[in-house]
Amino acid sequence: MNVYDSEKLRSILLNKGYSLTERPEKADVIVLNTCCVREHAETRALGRLAQLSQYKQKNPEVILAMVGCIAQRLGERLFEKTPYLDLVLGTSQIFNLPEYLENKIKLANVSLTDSQTIFTDFLPKRKNRYTSFVAISRGCNNFCSYCIVPYVRGPERHRKLEDILREVQLLTESRCLEVMLVGQNVNSYKDKNFDFPDLLQRVNDQTDIKRIRFMTSHPKDLSLKLIEKMAELSKMCEHLHLPLQSGSSKILKKMNRGYSSEDYLDIIKNAKLKIKNLSVTTDLIVGFPSERQDDFEKTLEMVKEIEFDSSFMFRYSEREGTEAAKFEDDVPEKEKLRRLKILIELQKQISLNKNKKLIGKKEEILIDGRSKRDKKSWKGKSKGNKTVIIRDGPDDFLQRNLLGKIVSVKIVDCDSWTLFGEFEK
Ligand code: SAH
Ligand code: SF4
Fold first, then answer.
1. Which site in 49, 175, 243, 320 is 20 to 30 Å from 204, CA atoms measured?
2. Hey, which of 314, 320, 331, 333 would you mutate to test ligand 1's pocket, going by the most ligand atoms within 8 Å of its Cβ?
3. pTM exceeding 0.85
4. Domain boundary residue, one of 354, 384, 411
């Protein structure tokens, strides 16, 4: 969501006559868009801000702005932390940045329910031309006990179906082939009588986009209708990102997630049954308050049973103002790290085994660039959301023209994170 917001902000600024530079020493305005979901993200952003303030020190004309979730969370307090900061803009105001710059207003941490400008129709200015995010909702009403998102992004608000369709169609006209529909909980999307599966149906039928993905689904709101649509619609990618968070129903309850580990297993079993070649990924937290060794083992058991293709794995990070911040953060840091390491090792092995099963199979790859390590190879994404490196092309001419093409390749090798493919001779 933050990447998408930054892309939109770029587009808005360009439209106002600003030009973009990646080099801070050349900039008149430096904008830092920020995330505060875990303490680590926040510490890094504040570190980056301190580092960027050197440009302001060298040239007092430079405007240094901090926007997004940390700006929303800390507001005025940021000026005390960083005297060189000029402007603080909360999440509901970031697209108004040009007006704040023109009027030289310093602080705009206004109410989150002011939702006038949260969906802008400016097309995101993307680095990757062939894929794009498209927000379908903003905010979240779930209040998982560990999570700061509802406090900094505000209540859930849904974008109009026609606006989403228009944005997707416009993106296809600038060579975009794949969209990722994003929201904190896409499953609760509603516009009049249209729900999320209806939205998928329309994006599939009424736009020229080639591939559709979405993120994130909340297990408590995932309907059978969604699974059926995923199985039925030709443009849907066979990938479901479904955060489990913990394998222990006791911990899930304390997290206020609204499902048990059994409920979660049922959803996955049904989804795997109905959707061919489904790839399943998840988010997991270790060391949540009161998580004992047996709770942690339940997470390991679930990971083994479900065999996720990959996972985002985090150690619990206390966030001021959340419900969980009232619980005692009783798992020592060392123990959190120990559990995280075990979990990562297990997932790495499972990812490798899952990838090995794809060797010999054909995959449809959307090519989006060259491999970073080997500039002669192409890189792309499979429908199951795996990175694929294509080692050899048919000939030089074709090689040069593969960018932005969807091609069929045979998988010949893999590691835990990457598949390696070849064109069939
Ligand atoms: N709306 C999405 C994603 C929210 S943030 C969802 O519901 O899944 C992305 C992930 O960050 C979460 O799924 C969770 O695994 C992790 N996360 C959120 N708050 C956290 C915290 N306080 N400590 C550690 N991980 C956290
Ligand atoms: Fe946070 Fe839960 Fe909302 Fe996701 S669903 S953003 S984890 S409160």
1. 243
2. 314
3. yes
4. 354
